[in-house]
Structure formats: structure tokens, C-alpha cells
Recover the amino acids of this structure.
């Protein structure tokens, strides 16, 4: 079986049986096509552990980030797990790959004062400003991913319980909570909105029954972030980081934050266990016998 056919069958399995999103499928396809180009062999069944290690070394020499290398290795491992599951392999050689250790970076997040300043920036006297304020508030109130926010449907907003039903990664549903500021900003935005027919909260102005693009929201949020911080690495995802960090700093437990973020693995949430220096000082002064000056 040719490699192109193997990749096609694998992607079909991920789409139809695992219900992976188009974005995730696109990532798998890119990773595996790059791997196929490197191998230059007729099929994936002829390679050895040395070939896999050579590919990892190739990626390292190309100065790919550890995160990118780990993602590509994960795609290859998933492919070979699929081939073993389907009975094409007697031994899964990809399981022998030793992955490089990922550097755990402290996420970029805003201080509470910076969040307050951010929310004050949109001009609420205009439709666009009301929409922008709503998007910023919903991001910070819920900790949503950008892919989740743009797909919010009006019918899934429950004003009685101040919640939204979200379709997250792997098409898994979860309920997120809206704070009063977010609820108010949504209602204000909808009052001035001309969105009477589109099913999405943030509709596209170009396509019927479609939502705003992720690129539009990304650029819009970046525009406002540049007005409150000099950190060029800040992005819409930084509002998700801010959401989680501020909850933990205020005493929320890790398991609850995990549920709100929609993480399957607790280790994904543990990157937020960094606490601010200010909180550490408060804890030290409050709990250490000689903490008070």
C-alpha cells in the first residue's frame, strides 16, 4: 500500500470515527506528508527505528521548536498506532521513539489591571466597538479557545443560568460560565447588532450563516493588546491564560479550572500553577512564622 493511500485512510479514520476537527486533520496531514517526503520509500512498513530517529535529528538540525518536533512525533505515533490497530503491523516501531523533553514555559498573561484597561478600550458608541468589547469580555470570562469563541451559537447562550454550551476539541461539549460583565456586553452588542438571522453570535459580514474568521478575531484582539502591554507574544490565547491564572490566584482549585478550560489531561492545566510573585509574598507573610517584617 502506497504511503499516500495510508495517510488518506488514516485521515478518514480520524474524521469519521474519532470525529476530529478540520483544523486538527489539516495538522496531521501536513505532519505526515512532510514525514513521507523525508523517507522517500514506497511504504511506511519498510522503515526502521533508525529511520525514525534520523527524522527527529533532521527536524532538530532544521531548528524546529521542541513543540513542533513533539507534535510531528505525536502524529507519526498516532499513524503507527492506527496501523497496528488495523492489523497492518506486527510490531509498532514508533512506540520505541524517545521524544525530546518539552520545555514548560510560563504562559503569557495579563495582570488584572491590564485586563481592566483592555476592556475600557473599545468605543461602545459604535457597533464594531460593542462587538469587540463583547468578544474581549467573553474571552476573559470563559477562557475559551479562539476556535470555540467564533463558533458560539446564539441558541446555546443560557441567560437564566449565565452559561454557554460549547463544542470544544474533539467535538466534545462542555458548559462554560459567563460573568456579569460578559453577559452585559453580549446583551449590549446584540441590541445594536443587525444580526437577526445568522445562527452565530459573531456572524461573518460576507457569508450567510457563517461566523467571523479566526484571523479577524486574532488581529482585532492583538490590536487592543498592543495598547496595554509591550509583550509582543500576547495573543487571544493570553486571555485564556489570564482567565486560568487569575482563577488560581484567587483560590480556585486545579480540577475546577481544568473543567472550565476543557482540558482532558490535568497536566495541561498544571502549566497554570505558576502563581504571581505578589501572591507568593502574601502567602509567605501570612503563613511563615517569621514572614511579617
Amino acid at each position: 500500500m502506497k504511503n499516500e493511500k495510508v495517510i488518506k485512510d488514516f485521515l478518514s479514520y480520524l474524521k469519521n470515527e474519532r470525529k476530529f476537527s478540520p483544523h486538527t486533520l489539516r495538522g496531521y496531514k501536513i505532519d505526515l506528508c512532510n514525514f513521507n517526503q523525508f523517507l522517500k520509500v514506497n511504504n511506511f512498513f519498510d522503515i526502521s527505528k533508525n529511520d525514525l530517529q534520523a527524522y527527529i535529528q533532521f527536524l532538530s538540525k532544521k531548528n524546529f521548536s521542541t513543540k513542533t518536533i513533539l507534535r510531528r512525533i505525536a502524529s507519526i505515533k498516532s499513524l503507527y498506532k492506527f496501523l497496528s490497530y488495523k492489523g497492518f503491523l506486527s510490531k509498532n516501531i514508533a512506540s520505541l521513539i524517545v521524544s525530546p523533553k518539552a520545555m514548560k514555559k510560563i504562559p503569557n498573561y495579563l495582570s488584572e489591571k491590564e485586563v481592566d484597561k483592555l476592556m475600557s478600550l473599545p468605543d461602545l458608541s459604535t457597533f464594531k466597538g460593542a462587538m469587540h468589547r463583547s468578544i474581549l469580555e467573553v474571552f476573559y470570562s470563559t477562557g475559551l479557545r479562539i476556535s470555540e469563541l467564533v463558533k458560539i451559537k446564539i441558541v446555546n447562550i443560557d441567560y437564566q443560568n449565565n452559561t454557554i454550551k460549547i463544542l470544544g476539541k474533539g467535538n466534545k461539549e462542555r458548559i462554560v460560565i459567563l460573568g456579569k460583565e460578559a453577559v452585559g456586553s453580549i446583551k449590549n452588542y446584540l441590541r445594536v447588532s443587525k444580526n437577526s438571522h445568522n445562527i452565530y453570535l459573531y456572524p461573518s459580514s460576507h457569508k450567510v450563516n457563517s461566523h467571523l474568521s479566526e484571523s479577524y478575531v486574532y488581529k482585532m484582539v492583538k490590536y487592543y493588546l498592543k495598547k496595554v502591554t509591550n509583550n509582543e507574544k500576547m495573543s487571544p490565547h493570553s486571555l485564556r491564560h489570564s482567565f486560568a491564572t487569575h482563577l488560581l490566584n484567587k483560590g480556585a482549585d486545579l480540577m475546577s479550572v481544568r473543567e472550565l478550560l476543557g482540558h482532558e489531561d490535568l497536566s495541561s492545566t498544571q502549566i497554570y500553577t505558576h502563581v504571581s510573585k505578589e501572591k507568593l509574598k502574601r502567602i509567605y507573610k501570612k503563613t511563615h512564622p517569621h514572614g511579617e517584617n
In short: The chain has two domains: 3-96, 112-281. The chain has 13 helices and three strands. The radius of gyration is 23 Å. The chain has a mean pLDDT of 86.
